[in-house]
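Run log // design_07
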């Protein structure tokens, strides 16, 4: 049976619910809390914490890629440079036209994040190098959450 891409995307949208949100600092704090308080004496490989961290990062990236592309220019033009493997057929065209899925949703969930270099997609959409993006994000997070001056 062939893969039903539209059904998969609609399922993702439905699971996100009415008030979809991106993973946040709270999610990482809760994970840190679990690690320190509830998983004492358990082998780190059994904790699956690294897998959870990667999952949070992947969901975060997919969320913001979708949001940026759905905002339109200039992100849509930059998204055209992405290497996305989308089999464009009548069902996808009809779903995009009818608004049941968005271009951002389609592209964000068609990207592979199996290699660390794949995480550069967000930097490409923002037109800044990924290292500059993370340095800026880190500085903003320090200012907002830790009241630390820029170094």
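design_07 sequence
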């Amino acid at each position: 049976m062939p893969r039903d891409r539209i059904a998969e995307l609609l399922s993702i949208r439905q699971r996100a619910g009415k008030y979809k949100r991106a993973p946040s600092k709270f999610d990482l704090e809760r994970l840190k809390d679990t690690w320190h308080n509830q998983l004492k004496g358990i082998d780190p490989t059994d904790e699956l914490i690294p897998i959870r961290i990667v999952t949070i990062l992947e969901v975060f990236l997919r969320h913001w890629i979708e949001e940026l592309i759905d905002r339109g220019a200039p992100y849509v033009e930059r998204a055209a440079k992405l290497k996305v493997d989308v089999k464009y057929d009548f069902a996808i065209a009809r779903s995009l036209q009818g608004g049941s899925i968005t271009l951002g949703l389609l592209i964000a969930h068609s990207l592979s994040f199996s290699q660390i270099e794949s995480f550069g997609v967000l930097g490409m959409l923002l037109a800044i190098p990924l290292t500059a993006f993370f340095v800026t994000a880190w500085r903003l997070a320090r200012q907002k959450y830790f009241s630390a001056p820029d170094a």
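The CA atoms of residues 142 and 148 lie 5 Å apart.
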